[in-house]
Amino acid sequence: MEATRTSESLDPFPDGWYLIGPSDDIRAGKLIEKTWMGEEIVVWRGADGAVCVADAFCPHLGAHLGPSTGGQLRDGNLVCPFHGFEYDATGRCVATPTAPPPRSARLKCYESTEAAGFVFAYHGRSADGAPWQLPDFSSTRYFRATRRLRFRGHPQTTSENSVDRAHLGHVHGYAKLEQTAPTEVDGPVLKSAYSFTRPMLSRGLGWVTISVDISIRVWGLGVSTVEIRSEGGLLARQWVLATPVDGELIDMWLAVDVKQLPPRWWFKGVVAWIGYRLAPWLFVNELVREVLKDAEIWAQQRYRARPVLAAPDRDIVRFRRYSEQFYAPESGPPVRSVGRG
Question: Which pLDDT band, with edges at 50, 70 and 90, does 269 fall under?
Fold first, then answer.
């Protein structure tokens, strides 16, 4: 189906950094194919371990380079299944079976980076590469649990949740909600902070209420982190990584890093070893339950370019102005694809 253009819709592929996958999933010798930002791509590690994210079609005669059609790796290079053209991790053709490699034979590669155990790539309309970079985050992985959800949505509307105070109480049951720092924008980064109390959602833990302070950071529309600190001493980081697939669906990767559990006199030795390995899964399951509540709404939501807002919605206005930088000015009014037939 063709894309439709209206003033009440969003371009499905805004500029920015978007997740390719966890670093551990991109192993040496493994060739991955996937649909990412409406494009067919292949992903692999070169001989030096660097990740290559490239267009999945050979520049020679257009063969698909993924493993489903016979694409394979040889000494860290990608070999086309049709004529055997061989590409290194920079996208350059380095060999062919019958002749010197054509100088102009080069894969379209996306700028990529590895940070905190994830691989991200930049999607944008500029030919000059990424105009801004993600931070290094923390090099320490701590104890992590990760889940992936796929549903109908858009990364702007999912990221907008980070400043939508009204829905936090109405949908998620947050109580005593206070904004502890104003929402601020610094180029491609948006930040805010809140405190609240909420019950645990996992079965058997509904009687547990936690009080936390959170610090939110949003890098573009594809990368959000939430630093969590509880009264009892819990330190954790929550990741919300929304990546458009085909213009209709998004992959949302959710991860929780546990840095510190509340100290107790009995919490040591084997008990601590077990606790630090179970806690991330408990918390990421809580996060999944919360996101699924929103996903039911996002799946049927219609974007309003000029919404009717109430007084508590001032940060939504600020967020939408922040989001404008991730759309190409020459593209005209935001558009949204209705998917492919």
Answer: confident
